[in-house]
Design brief:
There is one protein chain. A hairpin with a 5-residue loop joins strand 2 and strand 3. The chain has 3 helices and 6 strands. The longest helix has 21 residues. The protein has a single domain, classed as 2-Layer Sandwich (Aldehyde Oxidoreductase, domain 4). Helix content is about 30%, strand content about 25%. By secondary structure, it is an alpha+beta fold.
């Protein structure tokens, strides 16, 4: 629990959890421990005029053991986070007559550069053996955003994509 607690506390510190937010913004948090790595993300979110979620900033703390190349870890975390956010907000797959309708990225909406939030990643120093990084930043972003939306609206969202919930 020590490593899990450390990333939870560090992500909350990075986001200045407990301090007032700009009007109409809230924080949500989620953690994902897997294959010896622990990742925690805090998302700062607002809701647009049409009711769509907007993610402004994401704070991510990760403990993946001893780090050989921090730039690679950071790139993996940022990429996984952006992919997870795309899936969380827009990742709808529909099937018609037994076939998936989304055949290309024209049909499957991804996060655009202008929509990408500010991302801060902190890799916690560790003497533990190196563990996985890969896709580990992908799973916690959807629940972090959903928790922020709950803080804003009082409504739990339990389905994806969040933009259509």
């Amino acid at each position: 629990w020590g490593r899990d607690r450390a990333v939870l506390e560090r992500a909350a510190q990075m986001a200045e959890w407990g301090k007032p937010r700009a009007p109409g913004r809230a924080l949500g948090i989620a953690q994902y421990p897997m294959v010896g790595t622990s990742v925690c993300q805090v998302a700062e979110v607002s809701v647009g005029d049409a009711g769509e979620p907007r993610v402004h900033r994401v704070f991510c703390a990760i403990d993946c053991g001893r780090v050989v190349n921090p730039d690679t870890v950071r790139a993996q975390v940022e990429g996984g986070l952006v992919f997870g956010l795309s899936a969380a907000l827009y990742g709808r797959i529909s099937v018609k007559d037994g076939a998936v309708e989304q055949a290309t990225f024209q049909d499957y909406r991804l996060l655009r550069m202008a929509e990408t939030p500010e991302i801060q990643v902190e890799i916690l120093a560790s003497d533990s053996p190196p563990t996985g990084v890969g896709e580990l930043a992908t799973p916690p972003i959807a629940p972090a955003v959903a928790n922020a939306l709950f803080a804003l609206t009082g409504r739990r969202i339990r389905s994806l994509p969040l933009s259509q919930a």
